[in-house]
Design goal:
Structural class: alpha/beta
Strand content: 5-15%
Number of helices: 14
Helix content: 40-55%
Radius of gyration: 18 Å
CATH architecture: Alpha-Beta Barrel
Largest sheet: 8 strands, parallel
CATH superfamily: Aldolase class I
Number of domains: 1
CATH topology: TIM Barrel
Distance between the termini: 19 Å
Length: 275
């Protein structure tokens, strides 16, 4: 899966990654309040451009407002449900009681999940290991995994107080899988090599989600799947220069935002691919 990437995950980038092996993509995160207030920037994040499979990632802690949004919402081709973000480490988001602040609120999360399901939509939940080391040590994240019933969980194996440069704690995955009671668990964070994917699969996860590696190489999904034998026969993987041109062609075809195009072309091929 392609993770939600703020300032990069527009329709063009999502479709490019989908063409090269990502099986599900996610929009940029947006507050439900912003949809209700008809915020132009937020509405553009969920504007359908093509049929690439996508979940809409939302921030919400209020059932009434979420219900109002869902009542207004109309699915589009490619729509695959909603993703509740219990992972965002932003201090502003946390002060509002959203994002990673929701990890310890399993009862509230369960209500939001049931509400989305009640409107007939698929729903996933993305969590971190709590707000800080204290919450991680007390394993509050297991309450969500054990008390909420989404279609799948995504677990980013860090707490919200950790910097992006700090390593993930993959040792939590076996207990996460057990706590999830058969609901698929998708691993997220620090995944760039087939060896890492294999080790996570051996821990019982059902899939992996990648974000930052795809910014530099949107074909990383097929690279990994080729190496692990998931693509049979292996698929051709283009060079970074070709991916840049493919992005431009997609941009012209489905329509994109120049800001996203500038950011992507500036970084594609700049990050190390894998192994």
């Amino acid at each position: 899966m392609l993770a939600s990437l703020e300032r990069y995950s527009d329709s063009v980038f999502r479709t490019l990654c989908y063409r090269h092996g990502a099986e599900l993509t996610f929009t940029e995160m947006a507050h439900v309040n912003s949809f209700l207030n008809n915020n132009k920037g937020s509405l553009q994040k969920i504007e359908p451009k093509d049929s690439t499979p996508v979940q809409i990632q939302i921030l919400s802690s209020n059932e009434a407002k979420l219900d109002r949004f869902l009542t207004r919402f109309r699915p589009f081709k490619g729509f695959r449900g909603f993703n509740l973000n219990l992972s965002c480490p932003s201090k502003d988001v946390i002060r509002q009681g959203k994002g990673a602040a929701m990890v310890k609120r399993a009862t509230k999360t369960s209500k939001l999940v049931k509400l989305i399901r009640g409107h007939g939509y698929t729903v996933s939940v993305k969590i971190r290991l709590g707000l800080n080391q204290h919450e991680k040590n007390n394993k509050l994240y297991l309450n969500n995994l054990g008390g909420v019933d989404p279609d799948f969980f995504v677990v980013h194996a860090k707490h919200a107080g950790q910097a992006s440069s700090e390593p993930e704690d993959d040792s939590v995955y076996p207990e996460c899988v057990e706590a999830a009671r058969g609901i698929p668990v998708i691993a997220n964070g620090g995944i760039e090599t087939p060896e890492k994917v294999q080790s996570l699969m051996e821990m019982g996860v059902s899939g992996v989600m990648m974000g930052r590696p795809a910014m530099g190489n949107p074909a990383i999904f097929d690279l990994l799947k080729n190496e692990m034998g998931f693509n049979d026969p292996p698929r051709q993987v283009p060079r970074a220069a070709d991916l840049g041109q493919e992005y431009k062609d997609l941009f012209d075809s489905i329509g994109g935002d120049e800001k996203y195009k500038f950011r992507f072309l500036k970084i594609v091929g700049r990050r190390r691919a894998i192994y």
